[in-house]
């Protein structure tokens, strides 16, 4: 049902986009016609001005002749040949013919729901013994790990205090504005000048890439281990496979891609753009556009960081609109605008318990919210040695990594027990 809803919404968004394109082209055509008409009128206006000037000059000459010559002599001289008044044309203005359409016409364009007139197929019941003998049977190790994760999640809770576990510096960057989790205990770290560095947890640089990014969460790592990053200048999304081959993966057209996140749930790519959030599947096909709430108000201005919660909520850090959270269908759930009169959010992430962690440039702290946007606490502050937090990231072991402005230091913390 969700897939059908998503398809219907995508069709609607596509039609809206086509409507905007057609209206825009009509407006452009009208502007061109108006410009042409104005040019014609200006030309006629100049011709008339020239004719009036000619007549005025002729009147002046006649006055001179009258004052210096006897009237009888003037009447006997050859009369000047005065050209006729120049012709002018009335501008032919365009007409607009409104389209003829009905609700049924729109339904034909968008499609409609129908239930196939077929009998439901009976499912073949597979004996449990046969099922567990297939390749779908989980290994003992997998079962043990899944059980361990499930038990751990059930017993996890917030610690009374935050413990600093590790501190390391990252050569090649002078501040840390975004951290992406990589596989095998590695991180991708970027600064505000487009330097993107892959490092291990000791701060040893593995590789370095120069990008057009800045103070946004513009990179992420997919389930397959590929690095994805946005290029605002070219309005494209690049993919770097594990053999270090760079390809232009998605072109965003008019829209500027600011932030990106690879879903741990289904592998979809969530892209924050100036004015909207777009969902793509693994192959780069556009699935969903989110722009407005149920009252028609715009949700986003500059969503420069984006992530996903355990329930599928899309959480964005918008420099102007605060933390904006919508559900997986794009319905606005809540917005968070900080604990003070001014709030400028930066890096954002979520954890296994559904908490939302976000950096605030004004209070220089990391705010901790629950899954429904309720403020819980200031998780990290200046008193705990975090001066200017700009990026946050939580790994599978519930370790919190924090990057800061004006230093290439990354700190690792424990805040769950």
Q: Whole-number average pLDDT? A: 86
Strand order of the largest sheet: 1-24-23-22
- How many strands in all? 24
Q: Determine the CATH topology of the largest domain.
A: Neuraminidase
> Rg, please?
34 Å
CATH class (first level) name of the largest domain = Mainly Beta
Outline the structure in words.
By secondary structure, this protein is α+β, with helices and mostly antiparallel strands. The chain folds into two domains: 2-94; 152-416, Neuraminidase (6 Propeller). 24% of the residues lie in helices and 33% in strands. The protein has five helices and 24 strands. It has helices at 2-68, 71-76, 103-110, 128-132, 140-155, and strands at residues 158-169, 178-181, 186-190, 195-200, 205-210, 219-221, 227-231, 236-240, 246-251, 257-262, 269-273, 276-280, 286-290, 303-308, 314-318, 322-326, 332-336, 345-350, 356-360, 365-369, 375-380, 389-394, 399-404, 409-416. The strands form six sheets. It has a four-stranded antiparallel sheet, with no helix packed on it. It has a four-stranded antiparallel sheet with strand order 2-3-4-5, with no helix packed on it. It has a four-stranded antiparallel sheet with strand order 6-7-8-9, with no helix packed on it. A hairpin with a 5-residue loop joins β8 and β9 (246-251). It is elongated. It starts with a helix and ends with a strand. The model is unreliable at 130-141 (pLDDT under 50).
